[in-house]
Write a structure and sequence with these properties.
The chain contains 3 helices and 6 strands, in the order E-E-E-H-E-H-E-H-E. This is STAS domain-containing protein.
Length: about 120
């Protein structure tokens, strides 16, 4: 499964249960993020009882609407609690250490790896 755009790519690898984000996501508003929200919801259905890894290390930028969409996904995941989430980030991308650590505040079961 994959979402391709000129500026970003979101790809799900079923073998490793990993969603990899690359590029820069600068959509206009929350409704514009609906395809990404639905994509993540579909991925979550495939990961029941497993660990879902979300790899942001190659995502250079995401705006506030994108962070909100990702946060809502974490909250929905916490409510269902049928799979675990591991977040991977990079210290080399300035927004990641602060923003990704907020996901741990939304759900204390999130595994956070920022290196």
């Amino acid at each position: 499964m994959e979402i391709k755009d000129l500026d970003y790519n979101i790809q799900y690898d079923e073998a490793t249960k990993t969603v990899k984000f690359t590029g820069s996501i600068r959509l206009q508003n929350l409704p514009a993020y609906e395809p990404i929200k639905l994509f993540l919801r579909d991925v979550a259905k495939l990961c029941q009882g497993a660990l879902l890894t979300m790899d942001f290390r190659d995502l250079q930028f995401v705006n506030s609407s994108g962070i909100t969409t990702l946060s809502m996904f974490i909250i929905d995941s916490r409510k269902s609690a049928t799979y675990q989430i591991k977040i991977q980030g990079s210290l080399n991308v300035s927004w990641q250490s602060k923003s990704l650590s907020n996901f741990k505040k939304l759900w204390d079961q999130v595994v956070l790896e920022i290196s």
